Amino acid sequence: MVKLLRSSSNPWRGYAISRVFGALFYSTEVLPSSSSSPPFRLLHSRIWQIGNPRDSILPVLHQWRVEGGDMKQPKLQGFIKLLRRYRRYGHALQISEWMSDEMKHDLHPGDIAVRLDLTSKVHGLEEAERYFDSIPESLKVLPVYGALPYCYAKHNCLEKAESVFE
Q: Which family does it belong to (predicted)?
């Protein structure tokens, strides 16, 4: 019998025991949630269902807020990063603007640099320059000044990019 279990021709070798004992460690008990807010992945799925990048996601964000959904800044920043990775720049910009306008989250220089890049991709270089001019001097630090020449370079305005460094 032992020889049979060790045989390589046994199709159940290594699987049967792990399946039997593995089931012992699972539980059907539902753990109480630490908060009553719906999981953040539901917001992800709602936004991904909006296929057209020209459609606004603001109604989805407002509904999420009404339902008591989690609106912590790090999660929203991570979602902006994910949307940028999939080139959904318009939706990422809407979340960034909504974070500062509706949720009154303080924007850090990195957030401002990302928003500057998104503004140049969605609305063009002129709008990005207007946004840059509206940024308070205290927040115009290296990441923000680094994003501006990047925007110029993406729009083939190398003279303007060089003028930033002067």
A: Belongs to the PPR family. P subfamily.
Number of residues that this document lists for the chain: 166
The CATH number of the domain covering residues in 38-165: 1.25.40
User: pLDDT tens for residues 14-64?
Assistant: 555 555 544 445 444 544 445 556 777 888 888 888 878 889 999 998 998
51 half-sphere exposure, CB direction, 13 A CA radius? 0
Question: Which residue in 83, 78, 29 sits closest to 53, CA to CA?
Answer: 83
Q: What is the rounded distance in angstroms from the CA atom of residue 82 to the CA atom of residue 52?
A: 16
Task: Pick the closest to residue 128 from 159, 106, 150 (CA basis).
Answer: 150
- Closest to 95 measured CA to CA, from 145, 146, 50: 50
pTM of the shown model: 0.72
Nearest to 82 by CA among 38, 41, 113: 41
1-30: string of b/e by CB count within 10 Å (b at 16+)?
A: eeeeeeeeeeeeeeeeeeeeeeeeeeeeee
CA distances from 112 to 69, 75, 106, 117, 133 (A): 24, 16, 10, 9, 12
Domain residue spans of the chain: 38-165
